[in-house]
Amino acid sequence: QVQLVESGGGLVQAGGSLKLSCAASGRTWSIYNMGWYLQAPGKQRELVAQITRGGTTNYGESVKGRFTISRDNAKNTVYLQMNSLKPEDTAVYYCNADTRGFGVENRYWGQGTQVTVSS
Questions:
Q1: What phi, psi does 88 have (nearest 5°)?
Q2: 3-state secondary structure of 64
Q3: Residue 70's beta-bridge partner residues?
Q4: pLDDT (tens digit, 9 = 90+) per residue, 35-70?
Q5: What percent of the chain lies above the pLDDT cut of 90?
Q6: Hey, what's the torsion of the CAs at 59, 19, 92, 55, to 10 degrees?
Q7: What's the pLDDT at 102?
Q8: How many CA atoms lie within 13 A of 11 on its CB side?
Q9: How many CB atoms lie within 10 A of CB 91?
Q10: How far apart are CA 69 and CA 19, in angstroms?
Q11: How far apart are CA 34 and CA 49, in angstroms?
Q12: Distance (Å, rounded) from C-alpha 12 to C-alpha 50?
């Protein structure tokens, strides 16, 4: 099992910045990917960004050039720096960790943190 605890959400004006953090605990040795998804009211959860243990990144189209994902493997923590925020970025942001061990793959989710961008 892997537990994920997110922090850093809040209310910000359009054009502002926020930084989210997500700390993993438990069977962290089995984590290969970590990242973030967002879910706006009435919509499906969608990719924000992912990062592999080696540092390869992948971003959703709507955040490219504005958001940066990073990872500290020693601290088992993933970060999301969000700049130039827009009202349409308003959503609950969920951290994920993908694990692989003993031939089994799993995806774990954090509890979510609310990000609200006012116009």
A1: -75, -5
A2: coil
A3: 79
A4: 999 999 999 999 999 999 999 999 999 999 999 999
A5: 96
A6: 30
A7: 86
A8: 2
A9: 22
A10: 10
A11: 9
A12: 23
